[in-house]
Amino acid sequence: MSTATSPKQGHEIVRLENAWKVYQMGTEDVKALRGVNITFGKGDFWAIMGPSGSGKSTMMNVLGCLDRLTSGAYYLDGQDVSQLDDDALSELRLKYLGFIFQSFNLIPQLTVQRNIELPLYYLGWDAVRSAQRAQELAEQVGLGDRLSHRPTELSGGQMQRVAIARALTNDPQVIFADEPTGNLDSATGVQIMEVLTRLNQQGKTIVMVTHEPDIAAYANRRLHMIDGNIDRIEEGAYVTAPGPVTARVSPQDVSRRAGTFARPDEDVTRAARDA
Ligand SMILES: Nc1ncnc2c1ncn2[C@@H]1O[C@H](COP(=O)(O)OP(=O)(O)O)[C@@H](O)[C@H]1O
Ligand SMILES: [Mg+2]
Known about the structure:
Layout: E1 12-25, E2 28-41, E3 45-49, H1 56-63, E4 71-76, E5 79-80, H2 86-96, E6 97-101, H3 112-122, H4 127-140, H5 156-168, E7 174-178, H6 186-201, E8 205-209, H7 213-216, E9 221-226, E10 229-235, H8 251-254, H9 266-274
Parallel strand pairs: 3-8, 3-9, 6-7, 7-8
Antiparallel strand pairs: 1-2, 1-4, 4-5, 9-10
Adenosine-5'-diphosphate is lined by residues 23, 25, 30, 32, 50, 52-58.
């Protein structure tokens, strides 16, 4: 994974080549990924979209080194990781990847500080350095004054910000977010997207699964899946958080700004969510 040993292949960080994932269900084969070819660049912010059953979670699990392809190749920062065993994959996850889940996945018995520190414990950091790092990260997500709280004493948005801080402890190459706003109301969801957008502006590569167009609109690329393959790719962010970087919007996207991807007002967002 080190840059010294990575082959120079432009600025790619993630590449799938003819990626197949076939689940065996009794005598039946379920082809969840059917020959996907895709490259994600360093610093990109991708949203993976598509109907239920189209392969989004399967793709996310493979990219996040939580599962292996049936055939094809997965290059992570230039290294083919598709043949690695479970131990090697968990080491990759621990050292190079960050995860944010719909249900936050915090440990209820642990304080905010301990939750954030957890990956550092596995990385062998000492207590003093870990505490410092947890403090810095908690401040970065606006929770510097909540370190001794437990998850049950926090709102959903605060819990997700703890989870984001935890995902950042190892300074990950890629952050994977699976429906990060799925359990949040729309106003809180916007706050979380602003945190993710800021991280992306600071250079973090983000890959996010979402089925909500108004959430996907924050990403600068949207990959639409259908039946285990890529339906289409859209370029350009339609919504940006306050910050120094302006949206990259390609000419063909501009026409859509007035359509479904124009930033919806709250009522429209809520109506879409409740539909
Ligand atoms: N562990 C599994 N075992 C068998 N089939 C699975 C498994 N995970 C997903 N599938 C099937 O693979 C297809 C894609 O699923 P999934 O990746 O979860 O789609 P999505 O996240 O887009 O809803 C579906 O047909 C689903 O039923
Ligand atoms: Mg899914």
